[in-house]
Structure to design on (51 residues):
């Protein structure tokens, strides 16, 4: 299973800093709020999005 989350959703769920680390994103990278990130089931569990 794959989970898609946008940058704005990650900020709302207070997991944006963890997403940045997972995907190697720095604070100077330019991103849109609607930018999508595809997580594996294991990554989604690690972030507490699913059980």
């Amino acid at each position: 299973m794959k989970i898609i989350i946008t940058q704005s959703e990650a900020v709302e769920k207070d997991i944006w800093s963890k997403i940045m680390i997972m995907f190697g994103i720095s604070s100077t990278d330019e991103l849109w709020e609607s930018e999508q990130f595809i997580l594996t089931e294991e990554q989604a569990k690690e972030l507490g999005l699913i059980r």
Remarks:
- Residues 16-23 form the longest helix (8 residues).
- The mean pLDDT is 96.
- Helices lie at 7-12, 16-23, 41-46.
- DSSP finds three helices and two strands in the chain.
